[in-house]
Amino acid sequence: MQSVQPNRTDPRIARSESSIQQAVIEQLQAGQVFSSLTVSEVAAIAGVTRKTFYARFGSLEQLVERMVFEIFSEIATRIDNEMLVMPISDNTLSMMVFESYETHQKVLEPLIRYCPSGLLVEPLGRVITQVLRRTIAVNKAPPLDDVDEAYLVSTVASVIHGVLLVWVKRGSADSPERIASLVDTLLANSVQRVLIRGGA
What we know:
By secondary structure, the chain is mostly helical.
């Protein structure tokens, strides 16, 4: 029998999920170490039961991964096909991503600063995979094989996470233009070479 997914458009579900997410963010902002957070504590602060928490998210790790995935998926929807046409010679794409980050900064900053890197790199990698596949389709480039795609996605996700972590630790004081230019220098040409070459 197929399980029924919860209707996340239901206002009650949306409210409880928002309360749970906000409780986690507030605890992290208050200096709580992620590894010491408990579902009981988060549920109590959010005003929901443990059963509700588990029904919505499964675990604290899954909650963080979903929050990160949804934020970066929303950012990815702002990337139009013209931005993906190679050669990508300016930092328009990176600029758009970093400017969009600022919209989500209040949520992303404590997640980046206080959560284990894997909880961000893995969902970020899923979004990057989608964007890379779109880029390949837009440019009619040869598809990547599984090995190249896995390493490329992991490299890009790790670099982006590392850059964001340093940016957060520096108080987000550096301009998005400067960070976007650096990321393009680190990644753009290498990624494009791999995509043009296609799978080995």
